[in-house]
Amino acid sequence: MRDDAEFSTGTGSMGACDEAIGCDPGTGQSCPPRREFKARGSFVERCDGCRLPVLNCLCPYRVSATSDVRVWLLTHPFEHHKPTNTGRLIADVLPQSEIFTWYRTAPDERLLQQLTDRRYVPFVVFPDDQPDYQHRVVDERAVASAKQDDFIPVFILIDGTWRQARRIFRKSPYLDGLPVLPLHTERLTRYRLRKPASASHLCTAEVAAELLRKTGDVAAAGILDDYFDAFNDSYAASRIYHKLEKPTPAMQRLLERRAFGSQMARVFSPE
Ligand SMILES: [Zn+2]
Fold first, then answer.
1. Taking a C-beta distance cutoff of 8 angstroms, is the pair 51, 238 a contact?
2. ∠ CA 108-208-74 to the nearest 5 degrees?
3. Ligand 1 center to 5 CA (angstroms)
4. 205: which of 60, 77, 86, 268 fits an S-S bond (Cβ 3.0–4.6 Å)?
5. Helix (H) or strand (E) holding 92
6. Domain boundaries in the chain?
7. Of the candidates 203, 252, 9, which has an alpha carbon nearest to the alpha carbon of residue 88?
8. For the segment 219-237, what is each residue's pLDDT rounded down to a tens digit?
9. What angle do CA 247, 253, 255 make, to 5 degrees?
10. Separation of 107 CA from ligand 1 center, angstroms?
């Protein structure tokens, strides 16, 4: 979930965007730019793997982690094509994550089916600031007890702007019966690619990292945070056509984990 106050994705005039850094480089779709002039960055060459400008490709820093919980993203269709979307970072780090596209009149069949799977205990991650669903609000203890009872807790994260997220939360009957898990944190956003209305509004990857940390998946949370920071720094640098000369500390940690991970995979190859 995130603010509505986003940068333009390149179809507006320069003036409507962040003046210091120009427009966001395009929509991430491979179709030709709709209007030629404009968004400097529309012609930026993107990596097929990470969809970031090739100038500072994120692929070398991609690291997988494991977690006791699963993450299912319920993603607004507009988000899929935005290169600044952070929900996909979660799926990069936690390969068991699922991404479902939200359509109001056509719920995803696979999601509906998985909601009936008794191995899972799903939680809708959403603020607890409205009175009408207070009876559904739970906290991290509910996640702990699901784990204790050998269920797999699932965080359903709504991936869209705040306005879209509220709509998705309200207009999805299949979410109505699920417990609501709010995230209470002092953390301020480090997201630099869209301008939040408030520093306390975290982007989707940050929400996931905080929840993972609060519910015991500390290693996965750390990796996701590092990957998110690497994404932020890579993307922000590319916007000003700056090539990062050396890995940031977060990138360095990811490289080390990656090297360590491939070592461990050889030692503990499954079965
Ligand atoms: Zn890449």
1. no
2. 15
3. 27
4. 86
5. helix 87-93
6. 7-13+39-268
7. 203
8. 999 999 999 999 999 999 9
9. 70
10. 31
CA of 26 to the centre of ligand 1 (A): 16
Strand order in the sheet with 180-181: 98-101, 70-75, 152-159, 120-125, 180-181
Cβ atoms within 10 Å, residue 16? 11
Instruction: Give the model's pLDDT for residue 43.
Output: 73
What residue type is 106 in one-letter code? A
- Please check the confidence at residue 215 and state whether its pLDDT lies above 50: yes
The count of C-alpha atoms lying within 13 angstroms of the C-alpha of 102, restricted to the half-sphere facing its C-beta, is: 25
Please tell me the distance between residue 231's alpha carbon and the centre of ligand 1 in angstroms: 10
- Mean pLDDT value across residues 154-166: 95
Backbone phi and psi for residue 250, each to the nearest 5 degrees, phi listed first: -65, -45
128: its two tokens: 């607890």
Cα 60 to averaged position of ligand 1 atoms, centre (Å): 7
Residue type, 86: T
